[in-house]
């Protein structure tokens, strides 16, 4: 397949067949990177969505993006999800550079995660397909000045973090709310203090400092990341997935009885 012409199909196969677990968790951690950009977090705090309705805000984002990926951004449901997302974003004056940075995390965080933890790294064709997929989604969102190549967008991502990644109290509020959401999926509240350092061990120190989360104890990062890397040989030995893992079809915490695309997002 061609990474330009067939980018939707390649992105679907990579995300829903080969790396569903890895992609999902890479994008969860990508949220922390957005929260490290201090110039953009005051608006996120002001809306209250991430602090007061964290689970719903997370689920709405996952479902909207999954509708586009799983059905195609040019399908009926994909276009409906895109309209809903654009309507939500249109309520706020969000600078174009912040859109660009968020878009870049959707491309590069799964790639970086796979290089470190997945059962194989992404192929060059898969990386290019991810770039072209998200570039087209960005174009449909009316994001301007999307870098014209994979390499240029990666350079933008790194340069933007070098310039804008710094601590603010708003960063910390958003990161703590999202971290506690993730911990709540796996642990009772009484065990969150034990689980938090494990989660922190998957995040680099520069990002932890930017969002005001404590660095993990010495040695814990190596243990946690080593355990994630140990999955690789086990997964390579297992039979390949024969059906896609579709997030739109799984039971959802916010919408246990199903959802309508037009109901996703803030009212």
TrEMBL record:
List, alphabetically, the Pfam families matched: MPAB_Lcp_cat
Q: Which residues form the ER-bound oxygenase mpaB/mpaB'/Rubber oxygenase catalytic domain?
A: 45-223
List the InterPro entries hit by this protein, alphabetically. MPAB (IPR046366), MPAB/Lcp_cat_dom (IPR018713)
Which Gene Ontology molecular-function terms are recorded?
A: oxidoreductase activity
Specify the domain of life of the species encoding this protein.
Answer: Bacteria
Which positions are tagged coiled coil?
none
What is this protein called in UniProt?
Answer: ER-bound oxygenase mpaB/mpaB'/Rubber oxygenase catalytic domain-containing protein
